[in-house]
Structures are given as structure tokens and as C-alpha cells.
Amino acid sequence: MENTATLHLSKRNPSAHRLAICIVGMTVYSIPMTMIGPALPSIQADFKLSLEAMGLLASISFVGGLFAVLGGMLADRYGSLKTFLLGFAFILMATSTLAFTRSLILIPLSFFIIALGGSYVEPSMNSIVSVAYPNQRATALNILHVFWSVGAFIGPSMASIIIAETGSWHYPYMVSALIVAAFFSFMLASRKSLARMSQYATRESNPRRSINWKIFSSTNLILLSLISLFYVGAELGSNAWLPSFLILYRGWNIIEAGLILSLFWAAMAIGRLGLAKVSERIGYGKMILICGSISLASISLGIVANSLIPVIVLWCITGFCFGPIFPVILAWASSYLPENTGMSSGVILTVATVGAMFSPWLIGAVAQTYTLQQGMIVLPSLILVMLLTAMWAANKTSKPR
Question: What is the overall mean pLDDT for the chain?
Fold first, then answer.
């Protein structure tokens, strides 16, 4: 019987090989996805954008994520590895465009394509890992998503340093394009051996040809999707606006703002790693409620604090508590729908994208009308609604075993 206390990560374990590839992919994918925060003030200065226009641009950068259901369907039907490679091809094309374009039309289009690529990449990785570790989904997905936070630490910190040194937002995307190109080339060169090395190769070479459309009427999936909508709205709204808030409202420099955002993501990685197994013990719903409650308090205080050290501490607490929430949502859904892990993941990611699109625009719209600090109040408001939805879900469902 499998020991559910620890993951099997030995070099000879084919599941570990799949997890390792997904870990690298998650890190590489999250770098260009999270650079928009430090890049946004520089783009705003280049094109003289209003606060509302900045929010709209940040929102457009997530529109491509609406295709995550399609990505999940493709992963379930044609194979996760093929869908994974297709997504990275889109990301490479878009980051290469951002490295050189001077067109205000191509900038949002490229942001859209990065998110579109992500909508194929992320359901594929979630599906691969869920199938590889069916009895340890929450732990495995938490470990995988630790490396979203690792890439999200690298992306903003790298972008902040490069922009501070060069004065241009193009160069960070040039570096990220080179990173994506290196990983994509490796995957293309080794895709056949990767497909053969796993005991799950049968799933890749002979994937299911039928789609379970009944999952769209699943009450559990609907509630979990709503939780993801409000959570991701708060998470990626923070990523899009925290540097601009600290630079434009607080008057801090880009290095300080980029450092705080990077530490927020680093704390999230620590939270995912440190709390990975706790949710298996206490239950998925309780984990979301505890972490959401603490993050509601810390993010609210982080918005009103105006000294560097308290702001760093409060946003790190927020990141740490945010850490396990999204992987737990995915694990919860996969445990209810084990035969459609790609599609259930795609549904959740698609609904979450609505939150990611809506919150940056709403923050910008409120900031344009009132102040940027009042616009940032959107973030704790989203967490509060997430908590209410999670309480509803916890009452409707029981902890999966």
C-alpha cells in the first residue's frame, strides 16, 4: 500500500520524473506571467496611460486564461504532453513579441497570448500530477504550485532590477523569452523519451475520446470554481497592482516595490511547501477557511501600513496564507472527479481567470474615481467573499478521502 505521508520522489520512480518536468515547467511559465506588476508603471510612463487604462491592460493579460476549459479538454482527449508543448509555443511567441514591440496594440495582444498558453500549460501539469499521485493530490499539487511561486519570485525581482538598470520594460521580456525558448527546445528534443519513461504513457498515447459533460452541473465543482474566482482575483490583483500602489501612491522606488512583491511570492512558496500536508489532515474546506481568515486581516493591514518593514511583514504573511489555497481547491476538485482531472482543472482555471481579469480593472476604476488606496480595498473584499463561499462549500460537501 502506498504511504500517503510522503511522496515517492526517487530517481527511478516514473511519477517523480513527471513531477520534476512539471516543476521546471511551472517555474518557467510563471516568470513571464508575473512580470507585469513591475513592468506596468514603465508601460504607463511610455504610453501615458490612466489608472483605469492600466487596470484594463492588466485585466487583458488574463483573458487568455478563459480557454483553460479547452486546455483541460485537449489534455484529457489528446494527451497532456502535447497540450503542454502547444501552450509553451504560444508563450514563446508572445514573450518574443514583447521583447521588441513598440505597438500599443501588440502589447495587450501578447499578454493575451501568454495567458492563452498558460491555459493549456497549467491544466496539463495539474492533470499529469493528479494522475501520478492519486492518493496524495493535495500534497503533490502543493509541491507543484510551490514552483509557481518560485517563478513568481524570480519574475518580478528580475524585472525590477533590469528595468531599474536599463529604464526599459522590454528587456525583462527578452530574458524571459530566452528562458522559455531553452525549456521549449529541451522538451521538443526529449518529448519521445518523456512519453515512454512513465507508467502513465498509456494515458498519453491512448487518451480518452469522450468528454464527461455532466461535470458542468456538479454543485461541488461550481462552488470550488467560485472560491477560485475570488481567490485568484485577490492573488493576481495583488500581483498587478502592488508595485504600482507602492510606487505611485506611497512614493517608493521600483526596487523596493519589486522586492516586496517578490517576497510576497516567496512567502507563498514557503506556505505551499510548509502547509502541503496539513490540508490532508484537517480537511480541504477548513484549510481554506483558516488561511483565508488570516490573509484577510494581513492584507487589510498591509494596505494601510506606510512603513517599509511592517508592509514587508504583512504582505509576507498574506503570501504565506495564500500559498496552499489554490492547490487545495484543485485537489478538492480532482478528488470528486478523478476521471476528468484535466477538464475539472480547466473549469476551475477558466472561472478563476474571470477573477484575474475583473479585479485589476476594478481596482483601477475605483482608483481613478477615488484614490489608489481605496482601489486596493477591492483585494480584502474579494477574500471576504471567498471565505463566505468556502463556508457554504464546507457545509455542502464533506472532506474527500
Answer: 86
